[in-house]
């Protein structure tokens, strides 16, 4: 039964608490997106092609684990709800496995690659076990789309803050804590982010609630999967999400190479404690924070899918322009990067509110709320996009003859320029085109919410 409390606005404390959960995730995932490929090639000594292949091959595990976790969460029943308990249970395993990823034992070339496969697979399984339920929580945190949009806004505000903290501090911390030993620096830095992640996940668990109480889930797994695959708007959204995440992660994974080898960043400070790399990353992530902040204002005026088209198309245009910027023009490079990440901040906030709209559409059509499965399948698509975005620069580096920590040939420099600008631009453009086929609009969503409110009460 729906109570008056259930339909009241989310408190500021709960919106902050929910949002901080994604900050905890981004202490790791932001770190991986920015530095994992660089760590593997320039620090741990794995070839670019081998690291790129590993990032893709391990997604086979996620293809099974993500939907399985969603199905499990949908069928979980505890005094704390369906999704919240996993924030409590999985925080410590997630933290420990993140540390294992950067342990960096000396095993020889083959041993290092095996260790990378095993450790990366394990940390991604832990990420699935905590982040799929966390994402599913947004579908049941409130019955109204407007309140869920606010929750999503806070989610990506704090996701941006988490990434910003990583972007602004990780490279200086690695240098300071390692004392010139990058492997030690990475290992000690990840310990700090591991401890913070546990504390923040537990806080999110403590202050959030599950207000929407779907009926006992009685549909079979086959029926759940069949219903999901018939949701055309969800399929369109998944494809769009893959494209824009590939674009973002490919650009992020390329920054360290672009600044080091093309812009000749020698590590000297250009602003406060920041070198060129840290400065460009930080400005971009401030832009993502700004994009998340203005999203609800934009949603109030424009249809979500039309806004998604405009932001992705504009981002692509910016990146095509970025290819023409000279290596000594740090200011213009930073401005173009920041403007692009502002548009991504809007797009990624929209993406997750639209996923929960698809959850409600599925419940409206079938009577079953499969938030866990819907979100987990969506999360797999984003993790696949993240892996592909992290891997493609590695393949490009290998194809253009990149050799780590050496003076690069003109061909390898050209490859670095392509992977930093043209590659992500193409994927953002594809995302802009695909979202034009999305069908759930504001009028239909209003009708869905009214009908579901009647059923639930």
Automatic annotation (TrEMBL):
Record-level GO cellular component terms: plasma membrane
TM spans (from-to): 21-40, 86-102, 114-134, 154-174, 186-206, 234-259, 279-300, 307-325, 331-355, 384-404, 416-438
Single biological process term from Gene Ontology: sodium ion transport
GO molecular function: symporter activity
Coiled-coil regions listed in the entry: none
Cross-referenced Pfam families: MFS_2 (PF13347)
Keyword list, A-Z: Membrane, Transmembrane, Transmembrane helix
Gene3D superfamilies xrefs: MFS general substrate transporter like domains
Sequence similarity: Belongs to the sodium:galactoside symporter (TC 2.A.2) family.
Protein name: MFS transporter
């Amino acid at each position: 039964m729906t109570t008056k409390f259930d339909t009241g606005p989310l408190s500021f404390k709960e919106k902050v608490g929910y949002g901080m959960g994604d900050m905890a995730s981004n202490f790791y995932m932001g770190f991986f997106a920015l530095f994992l490929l660089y760590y593997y090639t320039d620090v741990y000594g794995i070839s670019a092609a081998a690291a790129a292949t590993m990032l893709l091959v391990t997604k086979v595990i996620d293809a099974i684990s993500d939907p399985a976790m969603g199905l499990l969460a949908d069928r979980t029943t505890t005094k704390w709800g369906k999704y919240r308990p996993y924030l409590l249970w999985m925080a410590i395993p997630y933290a420990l496995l993140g540390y294992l990823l950067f342990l960096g034992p000396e095993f020889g070339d083959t041993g290092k690659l095996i260790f990378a496969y095993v450790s990366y697979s394990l940390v991604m399984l832990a990420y699935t076990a905590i982040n799929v339920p966390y994402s599913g929580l947004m579908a049941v945190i409130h019955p109204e789309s407007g309140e869920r949009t606010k929750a999503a806004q806070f989610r990506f505000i704090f996701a941006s803050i988490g990434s910003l903290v990583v972007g602004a501090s990780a490279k200086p911390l690695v240098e300071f804590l390692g004392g010139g030993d990058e492997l030690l620096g990475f290992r000690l830095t990840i310990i700090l982010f591991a401890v913070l992640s546990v504390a923040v996940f537990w806080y999110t668990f403590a202050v959030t609630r599950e207000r929407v109480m779907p009926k006992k889930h009685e549909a079979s797994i086959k029926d759940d999967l069949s219903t999901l695959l018939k949701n055309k708007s969800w399929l369109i959204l998944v494809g769009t999400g893959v494209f824009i995440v590939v674009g973002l992660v490919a650009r992020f994974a390329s920054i360290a190479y672009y600044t080091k080898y093309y812009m000749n960043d020698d590590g000297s400070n250009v602003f406060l404690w920041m070198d060129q790399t840290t400065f460009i990353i930080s400005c971009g992530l401030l832009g993502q924070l700004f994009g998340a902040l203005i999203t609800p204002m934009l949603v109030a005026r424009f249809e979500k899918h039309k806004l998604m088209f405009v932001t992705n198309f504009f981002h692509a245009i910016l990146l095509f322009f970025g290819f023409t910027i000279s290596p000594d023009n740090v200011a213009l490079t930073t401005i173009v990067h920041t403007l692009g990440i502002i548009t991504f901040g809007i797009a990624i906030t929209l993406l997750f509110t639209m996923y929960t709209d698809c959850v409600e559409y599925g419940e409206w059509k079938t009577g079953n709320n499969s938030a866990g499965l819907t979100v987990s399948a969506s999360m797999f698509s984003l993790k696949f996009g993240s892996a592909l975005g992290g891997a493609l620069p590695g393949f490009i580096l290998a194809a253009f003859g990149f050799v780590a920590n050496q003076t690069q040939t003109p061909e390898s420099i050209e490859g670095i320029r392509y992977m930093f600008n043209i590659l992500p631009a193409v994927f953002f453009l594809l995302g802009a085109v695909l979202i034009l086929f999305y069908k759930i609009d504001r009028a239909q969503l209003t009708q869905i919410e009214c009908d579901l409110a009647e059923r639930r009460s």
